[in-house]
Design goal:
Elements: E1 2-7, H1 14-18, H2 20-27, E2 32-37, E3 50-51, E4 61-62, H3 64-74, E5 79-90, H4 93-99, E6 104-109, E7 114-115, E8 125-128, H5 138-149, H6 159-162, E9 181-182, E10 185-186, H7 196-214, H8 216-221, H9 226-238
Helix pairs in contact: 7-9
The structure holds adenine.
Amino acid sequence: MKIKILTLFPNMFTEFKGESIIKRAIDKGVCSIEIIDIRQYSHLKHKNVDDTPCGGGAGMVLKVDIVTKAIRENANSNSYIAMMTPQGRQYNQEIAIDLSKKEELILLCGHYEGFDERIRAFVDDEISIGDYVLTGGELASMVVADSVIRLLGDAIRKESYEDDSFSTGLLEYPQYTRPIDFEGMKVPEVLLNGNHKEINYFRKKESLRKTLKRRPDLLNKYSFSEEEIKILNEVKKEENF
Ligand code: ADE
């Protein structure tokens, strides 16, 4: 997959590209990340990219002519263009999985007061990473790129994301590693006995327990097996739900 990030702050991505799973994915050729400076598409004397809002008001607005030039010069018929904005649809794992199937992803980052409204006509999608306002779309684009890249090819082993929170529709079960006893807090016995049937049962039960307690809304969308309904009922009894 090709990921292109259109930004006014290309330096923000240096560390992002150079670390961990992202770096490994790039080195292995699973994906490429190209950081494109929107400012280079400015025809103005001081390479300005923004202007004052029509009708007045505070702040500056990103110019439609410059941003669309940046889009047009970098997009092709396979590009899926997503604008990072708090006005977008709320990002989640389902969208990450969807985006991971695209051939080329262009993530457009804004800054200042926002985008000229007409820029919206040139993108396929608008994504918000949550109900809060960042100083720009850069961090949001890293969130999207990170969550997409970890799903690609062998960026990580498949088993390690199949059980992810949200991939299954439930929150992930609790994980432990050595030491077995830390200041009196012990790893559950069942995880130490090598009985995979019991381990799977424990994990499913704890995954259901966590989801019930923290994100009961997810259970409304989940399609339960008969076995899972039984386990959930057990959990509800234990938790006095
Ligand atoms: N730009 C500013 N805030 C944002 C948010 N919450 N999500 C995506 N892009 C943004």
